[in-house]
Specification:
The chain is an alpha+beta fold. It has 2 helices and 2 strands, in the order ααββ. Helices cover 21% and strands 9% of the residues. The relative contact order is 0.17.
């Protein structure tokens, strides 16, 4: 389960660890938008998550290590 940190802690980490999230993943967002950074997921859940597709443009495609690689493209968002 991902570690939940207060926004103030995330902001401090974003300022002190440029380019890397607390989980060790590269940032997909700018420092000012740290609240929108997708969280790291357990590597065993990556295949299932990616197979389900994208729920919104703020959703992400994940790499084998559980880190988000990129935000979803509009064409990848599943429609109801």
């Amino acid at each position: 389960m991902p570690l939940a940190l207060p926004a103030s802690t995330l902001l401090l980490l974003a300022q002190t660890m440029p380019g890397v999230t607390p989980g060790g993943c590269p940032w997909l967002v700018s420092k000012g938008d740290y609240l929108y950074q997708p969280t790291k997921i357990p590597p065993v859940r990556v295949a299932e998550k990616n197979a389900r597709g994208c729920l919104s443009k703020m959703d992400a495609i994940y790499g084998p290590d559980g880190c988000p690689l990129r935000f979803c493209y509009r064409s990848e968002i599943a429609t109801p």
